[in-house]
Design goal:
- It contains 6 helices and 3 strands, in the order H-E-H-H-H-E-E-H-H.
- By secondary structure, the protein is mainly α.
- A hairpin with a 6-residue loop joins strand 2 (95-102) and strand 3 (109-115).
- Helix 1 crosses helix 2 and helix 2 (38-57) runs antiparallel to helix 3.
- The longest helix has 45 residues, at 130-174.
- The radius of gyration is 33 Å and the shape is elongated.
């Protein structure tokens, strides 16, 4: 049994807190990032990461466990089919909390919680490294030279019989 959190609960009762967390998780998976108070963001992070870890398993039991928290079937589908495959090689740390300024009305500290994107995969596909570009340029040079080398022997072979014929003709003229 998990130890209860210290201090006042979000929303008052345990049931209300559970509903708040479920709704925040649903909106996080629907939009990719949400703006909320720092306290709610810090309380949402472990729940969201547990749900993504269950979605990475991908089996029916995991899907039913996620559906117990996230009630929207479209969001669960997106979580299992689009969000979880992005994190197959990542052992954890699927969310990022960025603190923003205080809220205007009551000066509550605000934060943005968002799903972390795989920057390494995007960087390698959009801009190849310097070594990869050099290797590609070298390969292009080799491919550009290869057809010319192949054409030379065929054209040289065609010229040789003509040269032999010319020599034969010269010899015939001399005789």
């Amino acid at each position: 049994m998990p130890t209860p959190t210290k201090g006042a609960r979000l929303g008052g009762s345990p049931a209300h807190e559970k509903l708040i967390m479920a709704n925040l998780a649903t909106e996080l998976f629907r939009h990719g990032k949400i703006k909320t108070t720092e306290t709610k963001a810090k309380r949402l992070r472990p729940l969201a990461e547990q749900l993504i870890t269950k979605a990475k398993r991908g089996d029916l039991h995991a899907r039913r466990r996620v559906l117990a928290t996230v009630k929207d079937k479209d969001v669960v589908y997106a979580l299992f089919e689009q969000i979880a495959p992005r994190y197959t090689n990542r052992p954890g740390g699927y969310t990022r909390i960025t603190k923003t300024g205080p809220r205007k009305g009551d000066a509550a500290p605000m934060a943005i919680i968002e799903l972390v994107e795989e920057a390494q995969v995007a960087a390698t596909t959009s801009a190849p490294s310097k070594e990869a570009r050099k290797a590609a340029a070298q390969q292009a040079k080799v491919e550009a030279l290869a057809p010319e080398e192949e054409e030379l022997p065929t054209s040289a072979a065609a010229e040789e019989p003509a040269a032999d014929k010319a020599e034969d003709k010269v010899e015939d003229d001399k005789a």
